[in-house]
Amino acid sequence: MLHSPLSIASTLQISYAFMSVSMSELRLSETIIPEHRGTQSVADDFVYPSVEQILALHEQIVGEGDATEPGVRSEDTIESALQYISEGFFGEVPSTLHQKAIHLMRLLVADHPFVDGNKRTALRAVVVFYMMNGYVFEYGDEIRALLHRFATDEAEVDTETAVIYFRACARRN
């Protein structure tokens, strides 16, 4: 049974405060994108963030003054997430931009590569991923429920419904 992101959002009560970030707040033009242009896969036409870019995004989140504890648990986890969306594992490769974005978010949240700030870093990484590929990702409050589900019960997330939501939130720049 497919659930819309709106019904998912209405059934989950999110108790944490979530920061909405505008494109200007990302400070990408000078700090992340030009310095680390990302990598373009030979197998497809997408541009992918690098491990260093994801780490820089997390550093931004830590530096924004909230009570986010700094620390990286595993850079290998980040590298694995990026490898999955670009090359796949065991013959399974997300093929569309939106599928790749969903799995990037899923893996960065569920695999917990950071001590704190995993959901915010994952969301910001998705925004950057879309930006690197010529899209703007304008999400709504439903994203909170999706992030929470990835953090608490990722196997129960209907990724096809999430892809539909991401497709609706993304527009060509």
Helices and strands, with pairings:
Blueprint: H1 5-11, H2 28-31, E1 39-40, E2 47-48, H3 51-63, H4 75-87, H5 97-110, H6 118-132, E3 135-137, H7 142-153, H8 159-169, E4 170-172
Describe this structure in words.
- The longest helix is centred in the last third of the chain and has 15 residues.
- This protein is mostly helical.
- The chain is built from eight helices and four strands, in the order ααββααααβααβ.
- A hairpin with a 6-residue loop joins β1 and β2.
- It has a single domain, classed as Fic/DOC protein, Fido domain (Four Helix Bundle (Hemerythrin (Met), subunit A), Up-down Bundle).
- The protein has a two-stranded antiparallel ribbon with strand order 1-2. Strands 3-4 form a two-stranded antiparallel ribbon.
- It starts with a helix and ends with a strand.
- α1 packs across α7 and α4 runs antiparallel to α5.
Q: What is shown here, in short?
A:
This protein is mainly alpha-helical and 173 residues long. The protein contains eight helices and four strands, in the order H-H-E-E-H-H-H-H-E-H-H-E.
Overall mean pLDDT stands at 82
Strand content is 5-15%
Main sheet properties: 2 strands, antiparallel
Oligomer description: single chain
CA radius of gyration: 15 Å
User: Strands across the major sheet, in which order?
Assistant: 1-2
Q: Which structural class is indicated by helix and strand composition?
A: mainly alpha
- CATH class (first level) name: Mainly Alpha
Order of helices and strands: HHEEHHHHEHHE
